[in-house]
Each structure stands twice: as C-alpha cells, then as structure tokens.
Amino acid sequence: MSWKWEYAFSAEATARTAPAPFLREVEKKADELVRMCEVTYLHAGDHQGLDPKGDTLTIPGGMITYQVVVRREAVISWSSCDEPAWTRTTSASTTHA
Question: Which of 29, 32, 55, 89 could hold 11 in an S-S bridge, CB 3.0 to 4.6 Å?
Fold first, then answer.
C-alpha cells in the first residue's frame, strides 16, 4: 500500500465549483502532506495507537484542513475557498496519488 490523499466526504462535487487555481493549491499542499507522511510513517500498517491530530493550513485563496489516518495510509482533506460562491468541500469517493 502507498500513501495517498483524498477529499473527505462529498467534496468531489463541491470541488467542481471551486476556482482552478485554488484547487491546484489544495492538491499541491495535500501532495506535500503525503510526502511528509511517507517519511514519518515508514511502517504505517504496524502503527499502534491514535492517529496524529489534524490541522488547518492557510494556502493561497483559502485554507485546507486535514487529518492523517496512518493505518489507511491516507491524508483526508477538507478545503475552504475565500470566494463567496464556494465555501466548503468534503468527499471520500475521489482518491489522488
């Protein structure tokens, strides 16, 4: 298994209405988080205990909130865009490598 990131619950449909530059920033930050997790949790399947606390990061155009799920080797993200027409994302159906 290898690390991946995915939107939390129902974000795929919401993300379609977000500005493309903002979505590129979300993907860029999520990819950075995945690389960090690949180094930090080399044996994720053997992880015992709680997952690390999630966090919120400011990115150009809005913010990304994420949760690392170590045993699933996944970074789950929610995003918020500064644009008033688009406020919150959440979805688990799309996975990005």
Answer: 89
